[in-house]
């Protein structure tokens, strides 16, 4: 259930291209956030994002043996792009403010104040703009 009463959770799993059975990492997509934020500024931001149609992602993870070799960045970017394409804009939280830089490299903005009661920072990916010729 992962904090969801009646919501839907979708797993995105990363596997090795040489062995589709080898789990490398994953990310979860929630149609509603399971987070219980205390800082009123974060609560307001989360409510605005949700009201604007953003759903929630969590638990981005990559096996220790695959970290620091750009695997996490490649898989994270592909997963974020797939989730944006299928579900629209998304948001999540970061528990380490240094990770915000990495999430920004994946296209996220950081609308949370750095100093907040939650010790969590909201990251947000807006709906990608479609480009085309007119």
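^ Assign residues to that structure.
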């Amino acid at each position: 259930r992962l904090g969801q009463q009646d919501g839907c959770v979708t797993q995105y799993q990363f596997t090795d291209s040489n062995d589709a059975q080898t789990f490398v990492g994953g990310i979860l997509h929630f149609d509603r956030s399971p987070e219980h934020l205390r800082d009123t500024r974060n609560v307001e931001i989360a409510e605005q994002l949700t009201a604007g149609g953003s759903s929630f992602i969590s638990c981005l993870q990559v096996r220790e043996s695959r970290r620091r070799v750009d695997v996490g960045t490649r898989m994270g970017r592909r997963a974020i792009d797939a989730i944006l394409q299928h579900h629209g804009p998304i948001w999540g939280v970061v528990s380490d403010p240094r990770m915000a830089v990495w999430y920004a490299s994946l296209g996220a903005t950081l609308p949370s104040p750095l100093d907040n009661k939650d010790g969590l920072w909201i990251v947000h990916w807006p709906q990608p703009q479609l480009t085309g010729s007119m």
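The chain has three helices and five strands.
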